[in-house]
User: Which sequence fits this backbone?
């Protein structure tokens, strides 16, 4: 299958596919969770490595992703498909009747179909309704939030989640525009940002940072990741693997700190007479952070900012 075929068959070219699945599946008869099904690039590869005893729970917030998973795996008894947030992974695992799992995979961010379909409102390059919800069944749209939030909240979101230096100017322009005509489309927001940003960054569209920030806010992305990481450690059995692919520094910082803290173990006063072996540790880091090969970046530009971290649950 050529790369073009791969992309058109699934609508999403999977990042770090073989690297992630090789790090995840240590036991072909084990039970695994793909928290971010998307279009199932990782899920398909995981299943290819599992025997008939193996089990895979796939989760996604997005109804289109779910429909794809249900259709694709209808005849595969090893697979359970759940619509919901990975922030509730412990409940999802329990409801599937698993007492523990051997691996949890998170491939964060948006999928190509989410970006490509103008009606989802994720892309500053396509005109569509200002939605940006990954889960189309609930929650506030980006338009609803931007048309009602306090100016200070908008500034905070643009600064913290988008690292946007012109957050104040953009927020002020949003608040001023909505008094006469509420924002409803992506192109209205793009034009507004374009006018509000005085200096453009080289090789970066002026709306990039704001769109990232608003998307993170609307989908509660960082809190969901935090909750998922905490619960993953609870549901993993000893020797089980946690594999996370991040796409920007906010995500990666969170994942890196989480894994590092649990690998270091409980913080104890420095002069306590205790041997290293007596420190209670929950995770062991597996290898260094992995980035995509040059060949993958050439083939799939979306992979260029990806970074994968792997940790293993230690016996308690
Ligand atoms: C980068 S895509 C995953 C692509 C997938 N690995 C593949 O190969 O096709 C990320 C997916 O995670 C989903 N997602 C993001 N946050 C989520 C959350 N909190 N709970 C469940 N799914 C989430 C998105 O809807 C999207 O479909």
Assistant:
């Amino acid at each position: 299958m050529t790369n073009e075929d791969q992309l058109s068959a699934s609508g999403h070219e999977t990042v770090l596919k073989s690297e992630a699945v090789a790090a995840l599946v240590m036991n072909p008869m084990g039970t695994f969770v793909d928290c971010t099904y998307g279009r199932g690039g990782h899920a398909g590869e995981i299943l290819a490595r599992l025997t008939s005893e193996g089990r895979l729970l796939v989760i996604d917030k997005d109804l289109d992703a779910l429909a794809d998973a249900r259709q694709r795996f209808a005849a595969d008894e090893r697979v359970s498909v759940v619509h919901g947030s990975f922030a509730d992974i412990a409940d999802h695992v329990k409801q599937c009747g698993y007492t523990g799992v051997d691996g949890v995979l998170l491939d964060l961010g948006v999928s190509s179909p989410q970006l490509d379909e103008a009606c989802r409102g994720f892309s500053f390059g396509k005109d569509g309704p200002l939605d940006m919800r990954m889960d189309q069944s609930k929650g506030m749209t980006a338009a609803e939030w931007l048309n009602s939030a306090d100016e200070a909240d908008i500034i905070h979101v643009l600064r913290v989640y988008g690292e946007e230096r012109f957050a104040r100017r953009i927020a002020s322009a949003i608040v001023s525009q909505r008094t006469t005509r509420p924002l409803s489309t992506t192109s209205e927001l793009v034009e507004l940002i374009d006018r509000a940003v005085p200096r453009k960054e080289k090789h970066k569209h002026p709306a990039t940072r704001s769109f990232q920030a608003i998307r993170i806010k609307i989908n509660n992305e960082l809190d969901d990741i935090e909750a998922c990481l905490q619960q993953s450690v609870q549901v993993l059995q000893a020797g089980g693997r946690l594999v996370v692919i991040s796409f920007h520094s906010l995500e990666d910082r969170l994942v890196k700190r989480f894994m590092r803290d649990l690998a270091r173990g409980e913080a104890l006063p420095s002069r306590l007479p205790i041997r290293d072996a007596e420190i209670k540790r929950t995770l062991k880091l597996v290898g260094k952070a992995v980035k995509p090969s040059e060949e993958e970046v050439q083939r799939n530009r979306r992979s260029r900012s990806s970074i994968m971290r792997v940790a293993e649950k230690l016996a308690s």
User: Anything to note?
Assistant: Strands lie at 31-34, 55-60, 79-83, 101-107, 236-246, 283-285, 307-313. Residues 12, 14, 36, 38-42, 59-62, 65, 85-87, 107, 109, 111, 134, 224 surround S-adenosylmethionine (CB under 6 Å). Residues 1-8 have pLDDT under 50 and may be disordered. The two ends are 44 Å apart (CA to CA).
